[in-house]
Amino acid sequence: MELTINGQTYTIADLGDTRPLLNVIRDELNLTGTKIGCAIGICGSCTVHVDGVATRACQTPVNSVIGKEIRTIEGLAEADGSLHPVQQAFLELQVPQCGWCMSGQMMTAAALLAQNSAPTADDIVSAMDNNYCRCGTYHRIRQAVARAAAIQQESNA
Ligand code: FES
Ligand code: FES
What we know:
single chain, 157 residues, alpha+beta, Ubiquitin-like (UB roll), DNA polymerase, domain 1, 2 domains, 5 helices, 5 strands, 12% strand, globular, binds FE2/S2 (inorganic) cluster
Protein backbone atom coordinates (compact mmCIF):
# COMPACT_ATOMS: atom_id res chain seq x y z
CA MET A 1 0.00 0.00 0.00
CA GLU A 2 1.44 3.39 -0.97
CA LEU A 3 1.00 6.81 0.56
CA THR A 4 2.11 10.10 -0.98
CA ILE A 5 3.35 12.41 1.74
CA ASN A 6 5.16 15.68 1.11
CA GLY A 7 5.73 14.60 -2.49
CA GLN A 8 7.39 11.32 -1.53
CA THR A 9 5.97 7.85 -1.94
CA TYR A 10 5.99 5.62 1.13
CA THR A 11 5.16 1.93 1.10
CA ILE A 12 3.37 0.70 4.19
CA ALA A 13 2.08 -2.70 5.20
CA ASP A 14 -1.49 -3.37 4.07
CA LEU A 15 -3.23 -4.41 7.26
CA GLY A 16 -6.70 -4.01 6.24
CA ASP A 17 -6.49 -1.04 6.83
CA THR A 18 -8.34 1.34 9.04
CA ARG A 19 -5.43 2.39 11.23
CA PRO A 20 -5.51 6.13 11.86
CA LEU A 21 -3.32 8.07 9.46
CA LEU A 22 -1.80 9.74 12.54
CA ASN A 23 -0.43 6.46 13.87
CA VAL A 24 1.02 5.49 10.50
CA ILE A 25 2.79 8.77 9.85
CA ARG A 26 4.19 9.05 13.39
CA ASP A 27 4.90 5.46 14.40
CA GLU A 28 5.61 3.79 11.09
CA LEU A 29 7.05 6.60 8.96
CA ASN A 30 8.66 8.54 11.83
CA LEU A 31 7.15 11.86 10.73
CA THR A 32 6.74 12.95 14.32
CA GLY A 33 6.15 16.66 13.66
CA THR A 34 2.45 15.84 13.64
CA LYS A 35 1.39 15.60 17.27
CA ILE A 36 -1.14 13.48 19.08
CA GLY A 37 -3.36 15.28 21.56
CA CYS A 38 -6.87 14.05 22.29
CA ALA A 39 -6.98 11.29 19.63
CA ILE A 40 -10.75 11.79 19.39
CA GLY A 41 -10.95 14.54 16.79
CA ILE A 42 -11.37 17.51 19.10
CA CYS A 43 -8.07 19.32 19.67
CA GLY A 44 -6.57 19.71 16.17
CA SER A 45 -3.00 18.85 17.21
CA CYS A 46 -2.86 16.14 14.55
CA THR A 47 -3.92 18.34 11.62
CA VAL A 48 -2.38 17.55 8.24
CA HIS A 49 -3.48 18.43 4.72
CA VAL A 50 -5.21 15.87 2.52
CA ASP A 51 -5.50 17.23 -1.01
CA GLY A 52 -5.03 20.69 0.53
CA VAL A 53 -7.77 20.37 3.12
CA ALA A 54 -6.96 20.60 6.83
CA THR A 55 -7.72 17.13 8.14
CA ARG A 56 -7.52 15.48 11.56
CA ALA A 57 -5.18 12.57 11.10
CA CYS A 58 -6.37 10.82 14.26
CA GLN A 59 -9.82 10.43 12.71
CA THR A 60 -8.68 9.54 9.18
CA PRO A 61 -8.39 5.86 8.28
CA VAL A 62 -5.21 5.36 6.33
CA ASN A 63 -7.04 3.46 3.59
CA SER A 64 -9.15 6.55 2.88
CA VAL A 65 -6.15 8.61 1.75
CA ILE A 66 -4.57 6.24 -0.75
CA GLY A 67 -3.93 8.17 -3.97
CA LYS A 68 -4.30 11.53 -2.24
CA GLU A 69 -1.67 14.17 -1.57
CA ILE A 70 -0.86 14.30 2.12
CA ARG A 71 1.17 17.15 3.54
CA THR A 72 2.57 17.25 7.03
CA ILE A 73 4.46 19.96 8.89
CA GLU A 74 7.71 18.44 7.60
CA GLY A 75 6.57 19.40 4.09
CA LEU A 76 5.21 22.86 4.81
CA ALA A 77 8.35 24.79 3.87
CA GLU A 78 8.67 25.88 0.25
CA ALA A 79 10.42 23.71 -2.33
CA ASP A 80 13.49 25.98 -2.22
CA GLY A 81 13.78 25.39 1.53
CA SER A 82 12.50 28.79 2.58
CA LEU A 83 9.91 28.87 5.32
CA HIS A 84 6.23 29.01 4.51
CA PRO A 85 4.71 32.42 5.38
CA VAL A 86 2.88 30.80 8.29
CA GLN A 87 6.16 29.47 9.67
CA GLN A 88 7.82 32.86 9.15
CA ALA A 89 5.02 34.64 11.00
CA PHE A 90 4.85 32.17 13.90
CA LEU A 91 8.61 32.54 14.32
CA GLU A 92 8.57 36.32 13.98
CA LEU A 93 5.83 36.72 16.59
CA GLN A 94 7.28 34.01 18.88
CA VAL A 95 3.92 32.27 19.05
CA PRO A 96 4.75 28.88 20.57
CA GLN A 97 4.86 28.26 24.27
CA CYS A 98 5.21 24.51 24.89
CA GLY A 99 4.82 23.98 21.14
CA TRP A 100 2.70 20.83 21.27
CA CYS A 101 -0.27 22.23 19.37
CA MET A 102 1.78 24.26 16.93
CA SER A 103 2.14 21.99 13.93
CA GLY A 104 -1.64 21.55 13.92
CA GLN A 105 -2.11 25.29 14.28
CA MET A 106 0.26 26.03 11.40
CA MET A 107 -1.24 23.39 9.10
CA THR A 108 -4.72 24.78 9.76
CA ALA A 109 -3.50 28.32 9.10
CA ALA A 110 -1.73 27.29 5.89
CA ALA A 111 -4.88 25.59 4.60
CA LEU A 112 -6.84 28.76 5.34
CA LEU A 113 -4.36 30.97 3.47
CA ALA A 114 -4.35 28.61 0.48
CA GLN A 115 -8.10 29.13 0.16
CA ASN A 116 -8.36 32.73 1.36
CA SER A 117 -5.33 34.94 0.82
CA ALA A 118 -6.86 37.94 2.59
CA PRO A 119 -8.73 36.60 5.60
CA THR A 120 -10.59 39.01 7.86
CA ALA A 121 -10.20 38.82 11.63
CA ASP A 122 -13.48 36.89 11.75
CA ASP A 123 -12.25 34.50 9.04
CA ILE A 124 -9.15 33.79 11.11
CA VAL A 125 -11.10 33.21 14.31
CA SER A 126 -13.51 30.94 12.48
CA ALA A 127 -10.78 28.88 10.78
CA MET A 128 -8.61 28.54 13.89
CA ASP A 129 -11.42 28.19 16.42
CA ASN A 130 -11.28 24.42 16.76
CA ASN A 131 -7.54 24.11 17.23
CA TYR A 132 -6.93 24.09 20.95
CA CYS A 133 -3.87 25.51 22.68
CA ARG A 134 -3.58 24.53 26.31
CA CYS A 135 -0.95 27.23 26.80
CA GLY A 136 -3.49 29.84 25.72
CA THR A 137 -1.52 31.46 22.91
CA TYR A 138 -4.66 32.27 20.95
CA HIS A 139 -4.01 35.99 20.73
CA ARG A 140 -0.55 35.48 19.22
CA ILE A 141 -1.86 32.75 16.90
CA ARG A 142 -4.45 35.12 15.46
CA GLN A 143 -1.89 37.90 15.07
CA ALA A 144 0.49 35.47 13.35
CA VAL A 145 -2.10 34.22 10.89
CA ALA A 146 -2.85 37.82 9.89
CA ARG A 147 0.90 38.47 9.59
CA ALA A 148 1.32 35.33 7.48
CA ALA A 149 -1.37 36.56 5.10
CA ALA A 150 0.51 39.86 4.75
CA ILE A 151 3.82 38.05 4.12
CA GLN A 152 2.15 35.88 1.50
CA GLN A 153 0.64 38.91 -0.20
CA GLU A 154 4.00 40.72 -0.20
CA SER A 155 5.75 37.72 -1.74
CA ASN A 156 3.08 37.43 -4.44
CA ALA A 157 3.17 41.18 -5.27
S1 FES B 1 -5.24 14.37 18.26
FE1 FES B 1 -6.48 14.52 16.51
S2 FES B 1 -7.94 16.05 16.98
FE2 FES B 1 -6.81 15.79 18.85
S1 FES C 1 1.80 26.16 22.75
FE1 FES C 1 1.41 24.71 24.35
S2 FES C 1 -0.47 23.76 23.72
FE2 FES C 1 -0.22 25.40 22.33
